Amino acid sequence: MPEDLTRHNSFSANSHYPEPKIECKNINYANILLQDYAGTVSELTASCLYVFQHIVSEDRYKDYSKLIKGISIVEMKHLHLLGETIKLLGVKPVYTNSVYPCGQLWSAAYVNYTDRILDMILEDIKSEKQAIRNYEKDMCLINDKYIRKLLERIIEDEKVHLKLFKEMYKEYSK
């Protein structure tokens, strides 16, 4: 797990990540976070999508490939922080969207495998917008100050990613 993100500062917000912490164990909160961890629109899906996009774009679109690689590392950091928080909440951080009741396992079918540059960037923009909406919704459902702080920090990164993808889209739309 990449602990030192100093080489990837341009792909994340400037503030520090809070340490995973909770007020008390709560399976309902864990189920909410599992959606962000390994649901259809999740950190796991984003990480896999961005690694795929990095690989298929590195020969033809070097600037995009560099961007997507840096952002994928930040998304992996989010995945790690959410997994640690889910564990603290009393649930094993498996790649599923719910544990009680038993949910659906994460699927590689969640990843959009298009390799056309503008379509990839549009998918990235769509994914980041949905992630922000999901985290904002979660903030309304979770009443734990530590988790809320973590979600606020992750939202900051997602907004940076959205801005970077919009800028990249403008460049490739010319």
Automatic annotation (TrEMBL):
<dbReference type="InterPro" id="IPR008331">
    <property type="entry name" value="Ferritin_DPS_dom"/>
</dbReference>
<dbReference type="Pfam" id="PF00210">
    <property type="entry name" value="Ferritin"/>
</dbReference>
<dbReference type="GO" id="GO:0008199">
    <property type="term" value="F:ferric iron binding"/>
</dbReference>
<feature type="domain" description="Ferritin/DPS">
    <location>
        <begin position="43"/>
        <end position="170"/>
    </location>
</feature>
<protein>
    <submittedName>
        <fullName>Manganese catalase family protein</fullName>
    </submittedName>
</protein>
